[in-house]
Amino acid sequence: GAVESSFKCCAGAIIIITTSGRSAHLLSRYRPRCPIIAVTRNVQVARQSQLLRGVFPALFRAPPADVWADDVDNRVTFAMDIGKARGFFRAGDMVIIVTGWSPGSGHTNIMRVVTVP
């Protein structure tokens, strides 16, 4: 999945949109070489994610967008800004984005490989 793809394309980071933190926990167990940026709206999930190997939680506080796809795009942009600021990757690097097809827990099924703008 995402970890194997990150090895093959030498990704700068894996960005995951998570509600419960379970997806970040599962990715962390496979020990990717790149950092995992876990974007969540839940303070408790962000705190607990700090205990996971290679996971850097990002608490997204902006109000949710009406359309789910727009909300995901806003969170991915937020994560890319954090990744650039922390020096995980630069413009032109590849990142893996893992999201779900609908809001809530248990819907994580989309993986994209994107070049950082």
From TrEMBL:
Keywords: ATP-binding, Glycolysis, Kinase, Magnesium, Metal-binding, Nucleotide-binding, Pyruvate, Transferase. Pathway: Carbohydrate degradation; glycolysis; pyruvate from D-glyceraldehyde 3-phosphate: step 5/5. SUPFAM superfamilies: PK C-terminal domain-like. GO terms for molecular function: ATP binding; kinase activity; magnesium ion binding; potassium ion binding; pyruvate kinase activity. It comes from the Eukaryota. It is an enzyme of class 2 (transferase). Residues 2-114 form the Pyruvate kinase C-terminal domain. Its cofactor is K(+); Mg(2+). Its EC number is 2.7.1.40. Belongs to the pyruvate kinase family. This is pyruvate kinase.
